[in-house]
Amino acid sequence: MSAAIRVASFIGLMLVSMQSWAEYHLNLRPGVTSFSQGAYDIHTLVMWICVVIGIVVFGAMIYSIVMHRKSRGAVAAKFDDNLTIEIVWTVIPFIILGFMAVPATKVLLAMEDVSDSDMSIKVTGYQWKWHYDYNVGENAQDISFFSNLATPMEEIHNKATKEKNYLLEVDNRIVVPANKKIRLLFTSNDVIHAWWIPAFGVKQDAIPGYINDAWFKTDKIGTYRGQCAELCGTNHGFMPIVVDVVSEADYEKWVASKKESAAAAEASSNKTWTKAELIEHGKAVYATNCVACHQASGEGIPNVFPALKGSAIATGDVSKHIDIVVHGKTGTAMQAFGAQLNDADLAALVTYERNAWGNDTGDAVQPADIKAAR
Amino acid sequence: MSAVIEEHHDDHDHKPTGIGRWLFSTNHKDIGTMYLCFSFLMLFIGGTLALVIRAELFQPGLQFIDPELFNQMTTLHGLIMVFGVIMPAFVGLANWMVPLMIGAPDMALPRMNNWSFWLLPGAFGLLIASLIMSLMGMGSAPNFGWTFYAPLSTTYGPDSTDFFIFSVHMMGISSIMGAINIIATIINMRAPGMTYMKMPIFVWTWFITAYLLIAVMPVLAGAVTMMLTDRNFGTSFFSAAGGGDPVLFQHVFWFFGHPEVYIMILPSFGIISQIVPTFSRKKIFGYSSMVYATSSIAFLSFIVWAHHMFTTGMPVATELFFMYATMLIAVPTGVKVFNWVSTMWKGSLTFETPMLFAIAFIFLFTIGGFTGLMLAIVPADFQYHDTYFVVAHFHYVLVSGALFGIFAAVYFWLPKWTGNMYDEGLGKWHFWLSTISMNILFFPMHFLGLAGMPRRIPDYNLQFAEFNQIASIGAFIFGFSQLILLYNVIKTIRGKSSEKATDQVWEGAEGLEWTLPSPAPFHSFTTPPTVK
User: Which of A266, A285, A307 is the last residue of a domain?
Assistant: First the structure.
């Protein structure tokens, strides 16, 4: 009797504490699109069917463990076969599976229908960042940008307090209008990545040489976060995805501001910078694009990523330095940044690398030098 | 001449001595022992890597190892556990038990048996050498996950990838030879009267597993050979830039990989089917349906591989086919679970350590089976894929499935192997600590995956902190609990304070192996027994 009370009070305590468990997200969330809801519903259905089957099977086992133990004087029965029951427990699972398969098929067919989209975004995976290009398909806009991890290295290395969106913050977010069917086209520049926003129920691999597609549409304005879901090398854990779903009007404003800043960047590539300006801007470019491999100290990771501090390239011939930054080095993780950064960014970056960490070459590289080297 | 041979045969317990006994052994029992010891060693190496992973994941932020080394840890942990622990342990058990269970004097191909074993230390020597070199600062060990997807492992793979390729080739040759040997033994060397439908279920499950191995290990060899030529000889099988196809790699890999996961569970099904009737003192329920269910699972394993690839952008009809085929596996698997429960039903149950592990297997493997069914559902799989939900799923089937099956087998047959009873108290401690900590370790991973934590990441958002912490605590308890097993096994082998085992060992035990003395003599069944 007292044992029963103890068990009951334990279960009661568990239920009370469920309230505080809620914030730890025990379960899948319904999300904000029709098929994140669909996935949630089918998940819930299958899970509860499993729970019921589990209770029946485990219940029979527990009953047997308690009642048919030798220490209670149980004597083994002689039966070892029964064709009827074998047929029953082969056929019933088929029927149960049918109940799961029908709704699963319906949700899947809806998900795979990418026709009649309002706009498209081409998503390209890079080691270890995402590139978004709005200049495809219907309602194309001349906007494209890279989206890098924005969490500071100090937080990752436990030298600063971690923010709420630790590892889930980027420098440039994707912005899309609400209530529009957004088609996403996925590909990759190097290895396989996977683009995933749990709240949309969208997960697609970005594969070099392939173009995959998916779509989403939501009326819920807000910010949605996700991560790369396919192991893609050293910094796989550090390439988040952030989507801002905004109103139509806000989207138009964002498009206009993006175009303005593109024009400003163009202008800055045509002027001549002072060395101090270059170094200051270069430090920021380095922190976004280079620090993951070559490290803030410029020392790299021994035998994996080379050091820039005191390196032959960063202290030697300027044109060789520009060449490797612009064109990359094939067969290594060193990418061709010429395709990713503008002339001013690259000039500032090279200048910074040639003057930081005791690489005191005193060189100042101008955007025009980069343009010449492209 | 013939007189010499006669004399040799009279000395039934003649053993070679010294290191030569092991290096040149053609004796199924000694080779079985070597396989099991090798697997045990690898369990501790692979387990240590797992603890490094869990230590790093104990808190958000990077504490102990950098992301590059983290990837090497997950890769080698997976490879060592799959190819170095589970598979060799099963082959070791087959070596020991298949001849004893079918009344054969030895394996059919004893010299090949020796070579299949001795390839393994070479294979894992190469693999572990790459890790040691990495730790010494000489380049990176394999860092692309145990699934080694191209082009991460080809164009972007570290130099040590070629070590990995040769290591996999050697493991593959070893497995294929082991499988050929088991099939040859079972077909040719059964005692008179032992028809196929009288074979113990463990023999049946290994018979089917061996065919799976022969069918798919060459496919794996093909995959790594294509990698080798892509990396070194300018081909482009898996490189889109050269007209190849990265997704082809995944199809080839999983055509091997899915039957491989059944290779890692079917022998455990066999073990559980030996243990549950023994400690229920009742015949296995539905013997023939067990055999048919195992065969169905083996057949289905060849037509479900692309369920690992739902997010690669397959045509919707392909996704539907692989979803339905995968769901079908639930039927024969369910039959097996129902049969085990019915075997226990109205039995006369006792709960020695092998039975405890067998019962835990049925509970926990079934949970892994449920999550497997959930993963088959494509729309839901888009949410689960490559998250900790998958990590939880496959550890439930591999740790509380395959590994618990092996633990149960070791406790079940150790008295037959050594002639001494293991320490039952320590066995129960090992069982309870392992079972409880295994759930503390892996159950929260379901929640992590559903909440959105991707797998194979060295650092995570703060919302995942609590469950990662709980999982890491479980991991350390689980890891150190295995030392109890090590101590118990050594104690039993030394046998100084152990109770001597009887020939039958267990009250409810039935089968040829229990008619032999304990310990089983070095040469057994030199005259075949007759099975009625």
Answer: A266
**Helix, strand or coil, per DSSP, at residue A146:** strand
In order along its 532 residues, chain B shows pLDDT tens digits of 344 444 444 445 667 888 889 999 999 999 999 999 999 999 999 999 999 999 999 999 999 999 999 999 999 999 999 999 999 999 999 999 999 999 999 999 999 999 999 999 999 999 999 999 999 888 899 999 999 999 999 999 999 999 999 999 999 999 999 999 999 999 999 999 999 999 999 999 999 999 999 999 999 999 999 999 999 999 999 999 899 999 999 999 999 999 999 999 999 999 999 999 999 999 999 999 999 999 999 999 999 999 999 999 999 999 999 999 999 999 999 999 999 999 999 999 999 999 999 999 999 999 999 999 999 999 999 999 999 999 999 999 999 999 999 999 999 999 999 999 999 999 999 999 999 999 999 999 999 999 999 999 999 999 999 999 999 999 999 999 999 999 999 999 998 888 899 999 999 999 999 999 999 999 999 999 988 7
> Cβ separation of B345 and A35 shorter than 8 Å?
no
Beta-carbon contacts of residue B492 (< 8 Å; ≥ 6 apart) = B414, B415, B418, B420, B421, B422, B423, B498
B454 DSSP 8-state letter:
B
- Shared domain for A239 and A279, answered yes or no, is no
In a domain, A140, yes or no: yes
B87-102 vs B404-418: helix crossing angle, rounded to 10: 50
Q: Helix, strand or coil for residue A108?
A: helix
Does the CA dihedral B173-B176-B181-B184 come out positive or negative?
negative
From chain B, pick out residues whose CB is under 8 angstroms from the CB of A196: 386, 454
| CATH code for the domain of A240 | 2.60.40.420
A214 in the same domain as A134: yes
Largest CA distance in chain A: 96
Rounded Cα distance between A54 and A47, Å, is 10
Asked if residue A64 lies in contact with residue B341, where contact means CB atoms within 8 angstroms, the answer is yes
Q: How far is A82 from chain B (nearest CA, A)?
A: 7
| Residues A123 and A258 both lie in one domain | yes
Degrees to nearest 5, angle at CA A129 with A128 and A130:
140
Same domain, A191 and A56: no
Q: How far is it, in rounded angstroms, from Cα B313 to Cα B193?
A: 54
In terms of domains, do A76 and A124 share one? Answer: no
Task: Tell me if A4 is assigned to some domain.
Answer: no
CB-nearest to B67 from A86, A168, A237 is: A237
Identity at A271, one-letter amino acid code: K
Query: Which CATH number fits the domain that encloses residue A284?
Result: 1.10.760.10
Domain extent, residue A37, equals 30-111
Number of neighbouring beta carbons within 10 Å of residue B289: 22
Q: Which residue ranges form the domains of chain B, and what is each CATH number? A: 26-515 (1.20.210.10)
- The answer to the question of residue A2 being in a domain is no
Look up B258 and say whether it is catalytic. yes
Number of domains in chain A: 3
User: Residue A202: helix, strand or coil by DSSP?
Assistant: strand
CB contacts under 8 A, A 1-60 vs B, are 24-28, 35-36, 38-39, 42-43, 46-47, 50, 53-54, 57-58, 60
Together in a domain, A133 and A217: yes
Contact B457 A61 (CB under 8 A): no
Domain assignment present for residue A11? The answer is no
Specify whether A124 is located in the same domain as A167: yes
**Please, what is the Cα angle at A263 between A259 and A268, to 5 degrees?**
145
Alpha-carbon dihedral sign for residues B104, B106, B112, B116: positive
Task: List the alpha helices (DSSP H) in B189-286.
Answer: 201-232, 246-263, 266-280
| A208 and A232 share one domain | yes
Query: Domain boundary residue among A266, A282, A305?
Result: A266
